[in-house]
Amino acid sequence: MNGFLDALSASGPAPDRVEKMALYGQFVGSWDLDVVEYRDDGTTRRRPGEWHFGWALEGRAVQDVWIVPPRGQRDGDAIAQSNRYGTTLRVYDPDIDAWHIAWTEPVGQTYLTMLGRPQGKDIVQLGKNGAGQTVRWGFYEITSGSFLWRGEASADGETNWKRVVEFRARRR
What fold is seen in the domain 2-171? Predict the structure, then answer.
């Protein structure tokens, strides 16, 4: 397995795109999460989580793994508990000055592709979920030691955004 991890990981951003890689590169490291899920019935579910970001693919990508609840707190049937253990690959595309994003979460069998761009001080990612809804995932209130990540969905694609989940992240 060390050969795979050595081939995947990188020590930093690729030299030909250092400035652009900083958008997601600022998150490289490990984070503790306070996760709030917003359910259709108006209730919420709060759980802890963990999120790890690293340089990948010769520094031309930033990959993460997020886990809710954290390792060591994952008891019982992962599907029945609605546990999450997924990865996101983010690759900068200089031709469109945006990031191609692919998220995979095998516990819930959820797969999503998006485009990500800076929007002022925030980062906004847009795509379509399996139900055809437009999804907006964003990083907000970004500091060196914390950020708010929010996942939203909209049936009409532009308005009426419904909050699905929020992560409050604190750097370890």
Answer: Lipocalin (2.40.128)
